[in-house]
Design a protein that fits this description.
about 80% helix, mainly alpha
């Protein structure tokens, strides 16, 4: 896989620059890490964060689906 394909072509395929794509991926990554943390806390204390990890996962998945729908229009 060439550098252009990794750094330019993929972000462009979803209508973003490299930096826009990196920023969005970092934000989603932190959101998923947060979901993992609250799921871990929920595993230890079931009364805490009873729906939060799932709510975050759904929001992230919906965000990715919207991006895919938008990129298919390109």
């Amino acid at each position: 896989m060439g550098l252009k394909k990794m750094f330019i072509d993929h972000p462009a395929s979803v209508g973003e620059t490299y930096f826009q794509h990196a920023g969005r991926a970092i934000i989603m990554g932190f959101r998923m890490l947060g979901a993992g943390l609250v799921a871990f806390i929920h595993a230890i204390i079931p009364g805490f964060f009873t729906t939060k990890a799932g709510d975050i996962a759904i929001e992230v998945a919906e965000g990715i689906s919207e991006l895919r729908d938008t990129s298919s229009d390109l």
